[in-house]
Amino acid sequence: TALFALFYYVPVLRERVWLVIPIGVIVSSFIELYALHVDRWAYTVHMPLIPYLEIGITPTIQLGLLGYLIFMFLL
């Protein structure tokens, strides 16, 4: 919601909607790292991981990609 509000209410960002993808990936990376650090969740052996970060690739790209698609769908 905060990511959508940022891009919806800031005119400069609204003209550059594609930035939702990298910003969403960065935000979700921090969420994943934090959640793993505090043992909020763990991955099974089947989860593909991003090398060096050791976070799941699908939940990491999910926020950026879905954020972009939702923003484009609503406008």
Tell me about this structure:
This protein is mainly alpha-helical and 75 residues long. The chain is 64% helix and 5% strand. It has four helices and two strands, in the order αααββα. It has helices spanning 2-9, 11-14, 20-37, 57-74; strands spanning 49-50, 55-56. It has a two-stranded antiparallel sheet. The model has no long low-confidence stretch (mean pLDDT 90).
Please describe the structure with a list of short key phrases separated by commas or semicolons.
75 residues, mainly alpha, two-stranded antiparallel ribbon, 4 helices, elongated
Short description:
The protein is 64% helix and 5% strand. With 75 residues, the chain is mostly helical. α3 (20-37) runs antiparallel to α4 (57-74).
Q: How are the elements arranged and paired?
A:
Layout: H1 2-9, H2 11-14, H3 20-37, E1 49-50, E2 55-56, H4 57-74
Helix pairs in contact: 3-4
Number of helices: 4
Overall spatial form: elongated
Let me know the number of strands. 2
Q: What is the string of helix and strand elements? A: HHHEEH
Question: What percent of residues adopt helix (DSSP H or I)?
Answer: 55-70%
How do the strands of the widest beta sheet line up side by side?
Answer: 1-2
Radius of gyration: 14 Å
For the terminal residues, how far apart are their CA atoms?
A: 15 Å
Class computed from helices, strands and strand pairing:
mainly alpha
In terms of per-residue confidence, which ranges show pLDDT below 50 for 5 or more consecutive residues? none
Mean pLDDT: 90
> What is the strand content?
5-15%
> Which sheet architecture does the biggest sheet show?
2 strands, antiparallel
